[in-house]
Structure formats: structure tokens, C-alpha cells
Design a protein that fits this description.
Length: 187
């Protein structure tokens, strides 16, 4: 049997030639180069013990993201209202001014409203985590209930109860959706 037979899959399982490997002398574990860990890596051991955000981080995250979402959606709605309210005979400057005014007014209003909701939610949820000593779905649902009730407390007990129920349902659906995405969507 010749060496050409060995290279083409003859009787020997080890080929008689060697593959070119330019990094062979560098002792680089090239096979492990793209094997990435699936668990989070921490710089300090204390970070691995910390499993949820602190109350200050929750406050910044919920308030900021709620304000941003409200400002963007309110700005878009206000802009569309400004475009729709254009009258015949308006100059381009007047139309642009109307669009900018409506977008800014709605953006501020919705941003402030949702920012307050985020602030209340973060406070109630952090209080529940501290009081119960655990961070789970119940805290988020109770935080939604409390946020809705506190937000509409000045409108009367009936409005506060309805808003609390809506807030609890929305928070429960959001947490359940987050769990479903974590479980069924490969990231």
C-alpha cells in the first residue's frame, strides 16, 4: 500500500501527512479559542453573591426607562396630532411649529406620568424585597398593585382599587412574559 492510499482513506486511520498549523510553536489552545462560558463571569467574588439590583439601581432603571418610553411615545403621538391638526392656508413654518409644540407637550406629559409610575413601582418593589427578604414574582405583582393604587389615590377609593388591580395584572403579565422569554427564547 502506498502513502497515497493512506491519504485517501485507505487501511490506515492516521494520515501520513501533517496539516499546516502556523500557531503550533506558540502553544495557543486554538481549539478552545471559541469555547465561551455560558455562566456569567465576575471580576470579584462579592459580585457573584449579588443576584438582584439594589433599590437605587431599581429606582434609576425603572424611573429612567419609564420616562424615556413615555417621552418617546408621547412625542410620537403629539407629532401625529400636530400633523393632523394642520389647517389649510398654514405656512410651512406654522405647521412645523404646531408639530413641534404638540410633540413636546405630549412627550413631557406622558414622560412625567410614566416616570412617576416607574418611581412608585421601584419604591414599592424595593420595599417588598426588603420586607419579605426574597426577590420573586409576588413582589412585582404587589408593587404593581401598590403603584396603581397610589397613583390614583386622590381620585377616590374606587378608582384606586381599579388602578391597583390593573397595575397588578400588568406587572404579573410582564413578569410571566419575562420568564417565558427566558425559558423558550434561546439567547
Amino acid at each position: 500500500m502506498s502513502s497515497d492510499d493512506d491519504n485517501r482513506g485507505g487501511a490506515s486511520s492516521v494520515p501520513s501527512y501533517r496539516h499546516y498549523h502556523p500557531y503550533q510553536d506558540l502553544k495557543v489552545p486554538i481549539n478552545n479559542l471559541y469555547t465561551l462560558p455560558t455562566s456569567p463571569e465576575y471580576l470579584f467574588h462579592e459580585e457573584s453573591l449579588h443576584h438582584h439590583r439594589s433599590w437605587g439601581e431599581n429606582l434609576q432603571y425603572y424611573t429612567g426607562s419609564s420616562y424615556l418610553l413615555g417621552a418617546l411615545s408621547g412625542g410620537i403621538k403629539g407629532t401625529l396630532d400636530g400633523v393632523r391638526s394642520a389647517e389649510t392656508g398654514d405656512s410651512l413654518k406654522l405647521r412645523v411649529n404646531r408639530v413641534l409644540n404638540e410633540g413636546g407637550k405630549m412627550g413631557r406629559r406622558w414622560g412625567n406620568s410614566l416616570g412617576v409610575l416607574g418611581l412608585l413601582f421601584a419604591g414599592v418593589e424595593s420595599g417588598m424585597v426588603y420586607w419579605r427578604g426574597t426577590d420573586d414574582m409576588i413582589n412585582s405583582v404587589v408593587a404593581g398593585l401598590g403603584t396603581g393604587a397610589l397613583y390614583k389615590a386622590t381620585a377616590g377609593p374606587r378608582s384606586a382599587a381599579i388602578a391597583g388591580a390593573i397595575g397588578g395584572i400588568v406587572a404579573g403579565v410582564a413578569v410571566a412574559g419575562k420568564q417565558a422569554v427566558k425559558r423558550y427564547v434561546p439567547i
